[in-house]
Amino acid sequence: MTSPTTSLSVTTGTDQIALVNVFTVDIERQAELVEALDEATRSIFTKVPGFISANLHVSLDGTRVVNYAQWADKASYSSALQRPEVRRHVEHAAGIARAYDPTLVQVWSVHNSDAAVS
To answer: Are the C-beta atoms of 66 and 97 separated by less than 8 Å?
Structure first.
């Protein structure tokens, strides 16, 4: 697992989109799925035009993995899905999960705690 220190800059009113994909997984396969997503992000998606970032989250009960991936625009995301290496990854991840629910979204607003603002 990587734990980089990073900041995220999001601007509302742009073409930027995010994929929020919630995977449902058997508890004993959560680590396998998040490792597959992590590896694909490092080796595939970081090289795809229009990819901005991804954050992987695991549920504390072990039954879900959430992938939040930012893209420059919907066209970049759609184009990525046509790439053979991306399609292979999607099929692999789908084979590990019991179900998944990909949703494309745009940022409406961003809020930070007063303590986070310096």
So the answer is: no
Q: Is the dihedral of CA 35, 90, 51, 11 positive or negative?
A: negative
> Is the separation of the CB atoms in 9 and 94 below 8 Å?
no
Per residue in 8-44, pLDDT (tens digit) is: 566 666 899 999 999 999 999 999 999 999 999 999 9
Closest CA to 34 of 102, 97, 88, 84: 97
Q: Tokens in use for 37? A: 């997503």
Walk across the sheet containing 51-58 and list its strands: 51-58, 64-71, 17-24, 99-105
* pLDDT tens-digit map of 84-94: 999 999 999 99
The secondary structure of 23-91, three-state, reads EECCHHHHHHHHHHHHHHHHHCHHHCCCEEEEEEEECCCCCEEEEEEEECCHHHHHHHCCCHHHHHHHH
66 has a pLDDT exceeding 80: yes
Tell how strand 64-71 and strand 99-105 pair up. unpaired
